[in-house]
Amino acid sequence: MLKYSGSFILRLSARAFVRKYSSPGASVFRNDKLDGTGGVSDSQAKSLSEDDRGDIGSKGLVAAAFASLNNPDTEDKRKPSLKSVKQSKSQQMDMQITKATDVNSLLVVAENSIVSRRHALKMVSILSEWSSSNKVKLGDFEKDPRFLKLCRILARTPTAQAMSSLTMAEDLSTVLGITGDDEAARLISNLTLPQMIKVMKVLQQKGRRSTPLLRALSHNITKNSEVIDLKKSADLLYSMVSLNFPDPVLLDRICKDVIECLPSNEDRPAAVSSITVSLGLLKYRHEAALAALCGWSQARAHAGCAAAAVVTLAQVDFVPPNTEKLFEVALSLKENEMSRASAWLDLVFSLLILDRAEPHHLTTTLQPDFIDKLLSAGEIPIPARRKLMTIDAYVGMTLPAHSPRLPEDIWVGVPLAGTREKAAYVQSVMDTFKSLVSADAFLRRGCNSGMGFLYDAEFAVDAKCHPVLLEKAVNNKSVFRIAVLCLDYHDMTRRAVVPLGVYQLYTRMLQLKGFKVLQIPYTEYNPKDKLVTRVQYIEKKLKNLIKS
What Rg do the C-alpha atoms of the chain give, in angstroms? Predict the structure, then answer.
């Protein structure tokens, strides 16, 4: 007699429950879960022999299994799971979105109560594509409640009341700041100039430096024919500073519109100051725009604008012609007229860079009461401490011995090392110097000036540019002591590429200590050039320096 194992019977009917006991061959089947067709009860099964039980039980199960195939009433009537229902509805929505041919047939999907973030983004992206191809206009849907619902889903704002108070521009700004970068960037071409500037501000406020979005904004703002007024220019530049996005094309466009708008401006000194400061922070040496800004500030003798102009001119090492009155206004300012102590320090340091500072300006920053004012706002930041150290060193070299000096504790713990990129550039220059000055006795690297900054190397040569031992160069008038300043990309201005003003100050101060300063900017020296080319460049530069 053919016997069926427990696993085989389970494959025939999922409704059979198998109990396996430890004794060999003792498989007992409970068939009470099956319907009565061809089945046997537990009591009947107990009265049969082992072989009979296997035979009858197996035949009953087989009969029940095949009978169920022909009986529609025996189908599984369990309710579908919630997950499968949602998946089905989601697939239906995907099909509706794909088949939509106009705004209404697309946005009708948004009326569904289970619109997901994925569906919302897909619908907004399709609307963007249609707008870009001029199939529809932004005005066809920008105020539609269903579209605003999609914006709310993407924005994930916790309170509906807050979202309902937002304008369309703010909705779009939030969408662009939160959704996928590539998808959001495609929406930007459909925005107006004020909306694009608002998007830039939202990105700045959220601290979101999304390169695809910023590039799309820059491209579309630049090609927009509408003039960017001073307030919008100030907002844009501030956002570019905060996001570290100095796009040269957009900066040129802004500067062009600033020059155009300035003559008619009478009541926006704050915008003028903000624009001026931002150009300095971006290290953007647009000489025409800077001259226009300085001319506007000088004509109105506005103290705040004059101070902002001096700080920026020092940053980019540029002084427009005919700006003496501007400097007169700046030099007449007093420390108590500034908004905060750090602003006075910035102004004095900038005047020092431009070689316009007077002794009383310098000494005010070293007075104990001024240091106390700086400390009242918390620990003095490292950049401010470096400025104080440089001013103190300059005072020590140029003013009488009884002049006030900086407390020693300000000098403690101030790091002077540069960035990793700068270190790689300096290392390349030092490797080149090995062909000129081979021994360590002739070349000192990473030198602390004792004036708040480092210079990259020091060596000495005679009149024929032959190396001289450093110990023999001290107080030797026939020997030239050379200080090396390597200038990488971050040490130079943008647009008109020249060393930043602070490096011109460092050069003057090293000269006061008896050095000739060899500047090696990245625009002239390429680390990837052949060694012989790099050596020839430095030799030529050195010979010209000695002759001068």
Answer: 39
> CA-CA distance, 242 to 347, in Å (whole number)?
22
> What mean pLDDT do residues 513-522 have?
96
Q: Can you spell out the DSSP letters for 226-257?
A: S---HHHHHHHHHHHHHTT---HHHHHHHHHH
**Coil, helix or strand for 515?**
coil
- Distant-in-sequence, close-in-space partners of 182: CB < 8 Å, separation ≥ 6: 212
- Structure tokens belonging to residue 543: 């010979």
DSSP class of 384: H
Q: What is the pLDDT of residue 40?
A: 42
Measure the CA–CA gap between 521 and 534, rounded to whole angstroms. Answer: 13
The answer to whether 257 and 228 have CB atoms below 8 angstroms apart is yes
Which residue's structure tokens are 């008619």? 264
3-state secondary structure of 11: helix
| Residue 442 to residue 490: CA distance in whole angstroms | 29
Residues in the chain: 548
Angstrom distance (rounded) from CA 406 to CA 388: 7
**Residue 434 pLDDT exceeds 80:** yes
Give the single-character DSSP code of 460: E
The two tokens of residue 302 are: 């506005």
Among left, alpha and beta (phi > 0; psi -120 to 50; other), residue 326 is alpha
260 token code pair: 């155009």
Q: How far apart are CA 326 and CA 294, in angstroms?
A: 7
Closest C-alpha to 517, from 547, 542, 489, 488: 542
Task: Please give the Cα distance from 532 to 118 (Å, whole number).
Answer: 59
Residue 17: both structure tokens together: 């429950």
* pLDDT tens, position by position, 151-187: 777 765 433 333 333 344 444 544 444 445 666 677 7
* Side chain identity at residue 416, one-letter code: L
Please give the model's pTM, rounded to 2 decimal places. Answer: 0.72
User: In angstroms, how far is CA 254 from the centroid of its own chain?
Assistant: 21
What sign does the CA torsion over 254, 257, 263, 267 have? negative
Q: What is the DSSP letter of 412?
A: T
Tokens 């009488």, residue? 400
Largest CA distance in the chain: 126
**Measured in whole angstroms, how far is the alpha carbon of residue 294 from the centre of its chain?**
30
403 token code pair:
């002049």
User: How is the chain split into domains, by residue range?
Assistant: 6-70, 350-415, 420-547
Give the model confidence (pLDDT) of 223-249 as tens digits: 999 999 999 999 999 999 999 999 999
Name which of 432, 481, 479, 423 is nearest 456 in CA terms. 423
Lookup result for tokens 């000269």: 511
- Token readout for 281 is 């922070």
